[in-house]
Amino acid sequence: MTTDFSVPNSLSDVVLIVEGKRLHVTRSYLAVHSEVFHKMLLGKFVEGQQKEITLMGPENLKYDEFLTLLKVLYQPQEEVTGM
């Protein structure tokens, strides 16, 4: 998976907006890695139906810190071969 969230990719299906900046991500991928995102994106919240979601979060939610979180979650995985 790519770590350039500024542009959509073939799997991105929602845009998260933090400090006015757009991050193209995949709902199900975030939901698997976070109970909060699972409830927000796949549950009965209005965000589950939206294509763009502005994250308000705590007052100190910063774009750079949130981008770092996404990069940790979307780290490239080692490919398993020989099985």
Automatic annotation (TrEMBL):
BTB domain location: 12-82
Origin: domain of life: Eukaryota
Record-linked Pfam families: BTB (PF00651)
SUPFAM superfamilies to which the protein is assigned, alphabetical: POZ domain
InterPro entries recorded: BTB/POZ_dom, SKP1/BTB/POZ_sf
Signal peptide range in chain numbering: none
Protein's name according to its UniProt entry: BTB domain-containing protein
